[in-house]
């Protein structure tokens, strides 16, 4: 059994498809298929069921997925620790980001990392918070920034700050919003967000706590799309305060001034990878840039 057999097994399990797994591993689909077949022959088990829609784990495959991931994580940790013992850390980490660079202090994080570990490179991928949690969980990302809650049973994280979220409306709604309370807001049309969006979670809590349900006319999962729809007159929406204030000052939106919502901004990674030297270096750089509180 070779490590590349395990890597192919895990990639196919996570992607559910040979072609996508090959793309993820930067190899060919026949190579991945051969790796899986060889592993099945060596173990004497069928790991996947081939279906018209792709590859589905068998019961045996599901049982062996977590141990296979642990082996690969252990090897990666061993390699990283060996590089650390040799005197310099080198490698690349994929970090999930959701907001703009200035808000996340990415420049300060990069400087902190470059000063101490110039051999570590970062690849930044834009993704929603739910996607960051999912992809850090299945190791497509090494760590990431998330707004709102995250699973405390599998992840460790740094609470970086508490961010404010503002209700924005079309530019001609200043007077209407100035006299509005929560009941009035609920009666107005809303550009709403998907259930796994942190904006959705904090807004739903506010409305449901008052026995109210907002009038949802359209759903969008991008801050830029929400802001554009609000600016065009579709209805109300939510935006991080910094962006909302800039849009208000530019005359693109109006602002509800009678309150704000709040949610956490955290930097998370898998708990089982906490001893990875590369990840430890990045977490330390984030900590120095933010001076945050450690979350248990």
Structure description:
The protein is an alpha/beta fold and 296 residues long. It has helices at residues 3-15, 18-25, 29-43, 59-85, 101-104, 106-116, 129-137, 174-178, 182-187, 198-209, 223-231, 241-249, 277-290; strands at residues 48-51, 54-57, 91-97, 120-126, 143-147, 155-169, 189-192, 215-219, 237-240, 254-255, 261-270, 293-295. The chain has 3 domains: 3-82, Winged helix-like DNA-binding domain superfamily/Winged helix DNA-binding domain (Arc Repressor Mutant, subunit A); 89-144 and 272-295, D-Maltodextrin-Binding Protein, domain 2; 162-263, 3-Layer(aba) Sandwich (D-Maltodextrin-Binding Protein, domain 2). It contains 13 helices and 12 strands. Helix 1 packs across helix 2 and helix 1 crosses helix 3 (29-43). The longest helix is centred in the N-terminal third of the chain and has 27 residues, at 59-85. The radius of gyration is 23 Å and the shape is globular.
Q: What summary fits the major beta sheet?
A: 8 strands, mixed
Spell the H/E element sequence: HHHEEHEHHEHEEHHEHEHEHEEHE
Shape category:
globular
Average pLDDT figure: 89
Report the end-to-end length measured between terminal Cα atoms.
37 Å
User: Radius of gyration, rounded?
Assistant: 23 Å
**SSE-based structural type:** alpha/beta
Kindly give the count of domains: 3
CATH C-level label of the largest domain? Alpha Beta
> What name goes with the CATH superfamily of the largest domain?
Periplasmic binding protein-like II
- Helix fraction by DSSP (H/I, runs of at least 4): 40-55%
Low-confidence stretches: none
Q: What's the tally of helices? A: 13
Binned strand content: 15-25%
Instruction: Predict the CATH topology of the largest domain.
Output: D-Maltodextrin-Binding Protein, domain 2
The CATH architecture designation of the largest domain is 3-Layer(aba) Sandwich
DSSP E strands, number: 12
